[in-house]
Amino acid sequence: MRFEINKDKLLYHLLIAQKALSNKTPNPALQGIKIDVEDNHVIITTSNSDISIKILLEDGSLDIEETGSVLIPGKYFIEIIRKLDGQTVSLSHASDNMLKIEADHSDITLNMLELDDYPDLKFNEKKEFVKVNVRTLKTIIRQTAFATSTIENRPILTGVHFTIDGKDLSGVATDSYRLSQKTINLEESYDAMKVVIPGRSLEELMKILENNQDDVELHFDQNRVLFKYNNVLFLSRLLEGNYPETSKLIPQEFPVQIKFNKEQLITAIERASLLSSRDGQNAIVKLNVRQDDVIEISSNSPEIGRVLEEVYPVDEIKGSPLKIAFSSKYILEALRVFNSSEVTVKFTGEIRPFIITGEYDDDMLQLILPVKTD
Amino acid sequence: MRFEINKDKLLYHLLIAQKALSNKTPNPALQGIKIDVEDNHVIITTSNSDISIKILLEDGSLDIEETGSVLIPGKYFIEIIRKLDGQTVSLSHASDNMLKIEADHSDITLNMLELDDYPDLKFNEKKEFVKVNVRTLKTIIRQTAFATSTIENRPILTGVHFTIDGKDLSGVATDSYRLSQKTINLEESYDAMKVVIPGRSLEELMKILENNQDDVELHFDQNRVLFKYNNVLFLSRLLEGNYPETSKLIPQEFPVQIKFNKEQLITAIERASLLSSRDGQNAIVKLNVRQDDVIEISSNSPEIGRVLEEVYPVDEIKGSPLKIAFSSKYILEALRVFNSSEVTVKFTGEIRPFIITGEYDDDMLQLILPVKTD
Lengths: 374, 374
Description:
Helices cover 17% and strands 43% of the residues of chain A.
């Protein structure tokens, strides 16, 4: 194996591949980046227990002298390429399973990993796949994945539940204290389908997706999903099991509705969270709709002090006075994913879940369970 | 106590005071910021076991209604002021030793600390003091303090040894593996003097000093030094004990001298450090002056691989071929404090300390002890 390539081009793709590289893995081969040099292109592959990435690298700067495959220790390889001087880097398989890296005045030899130990990964593309615009896919992930559970005792809740129904693609996530739901419209109609994709896989996928007009193809298999995005294949396992029925959790009647300026509400809740003896964002904050239609956001920590914020609603309040308490972390995370600058908080009752919607956030809702206080 | 002030002005000074605020202290009073409101100004005081800061706050936005003194929990107070909306903040001493903070639509009450528990700090200015331009003071600290020891078994080496001799002010720091030395010229002549100032105090002082043309006054006391910088008084303890005689450590004869482009030398050593099984910058790097006057920088780690860098000297090498090995951390830290873009490395022998100087770094030298390799 021997080829030359523009150093920045190689680094750009290595940093994508790095998303599926694990430093802690029982299988040392998975600390490696697999490089297959073929006649006209180079394939870069990485994998950990949850996701695998395969990149097809074709570039004008690519000069292939000899084909072949190698498995290179990922962490050291990326650090070396990042630090090299010069425009071009030359990689070649030297004797004794060593990789020779040459650039400018640098001559580096890196011990390689055993290629035979690398798993045989299948990045199978299907004939039938779902096509989504990359911006739309990013929106649905950004507005749902944060609400997945990080606790492993109900593994199914660590994923986002995607359902396809005709032209609708919905994502739902809940950790049982809050719920996020967003539906987007697809350009074509597809057969009905339900899968649960791990939240962490989606977070890594987000880092690869850019803000352009390209499409992403979703190829579904028995227990895996393959995202095809330009020259990158991103494979994630699916979560097995039945996702809970969430539609019943969402109240339908909202006797009290308040429209807020989103930034004002966020900063008031942030300040009310400051004086909490509980760590950081886990503060409990109270919301009180006063008779005079001013909203009080408050918190009280006998050892530290108390905060009282007055917030003026954007429109007249619908409904009657109400007192409710909630986790500041949950409401802040929910508010921050809205694109709308004004949001409507809709209450059913003082101990019932409440929801948040926004005029410019179509088919999206954030639901939060209140907490009981004295 | 009751006053109003521009919020940003208050925050700016609180962030200076924060440098002497400790979260971990056996004395809870030292977690507090002391505020003394007098007729025409406010005094902000903080202290930990090593340094104390006193700020005289006079500002057009200051509106004092009632004088008095309070001790406010520092961490919460700074976070609140940082997060407030509105231009102006009002602070007042409410009943039950509570501080009332009002701004815009926020009404915050913070439990205060017991003022009587606060130590009586003396920020005594002397009639005789040393005057140094702030940029010059920053230079001497930046070029020496990094070389102080961080290990407490020889406490005196955790400080920078400052000596005044007529118009010369020198700083020397060593952790016994490397040594930094810089001398600056003062505008006036002073009596001879020697003190050792803790490196950590100097690092905190650096964060307060700006890049302007102001002067800093150094007031020396028996076991303390007071830096006066505009409206800020910064008090540090001095280290007690005899600083070792360092001048004998510096070789005077340099049979081999090599002038390098500083950036080329830094990046070559950085790359040679990458493949080290020792953590990060503690890699051992070898330097080899070849017969053909090319310098080889190399490292070798049997488990990981090896790096060989060729560096071309700026001028003809003075002296004969030589091989030497050193800690990459020490040489990189030394190289990075030079202002010169070309540096001269001067060798006495393969197991003797070597020094680095730079044409545009007057009266500064960096010394490094080599390590033995096979």
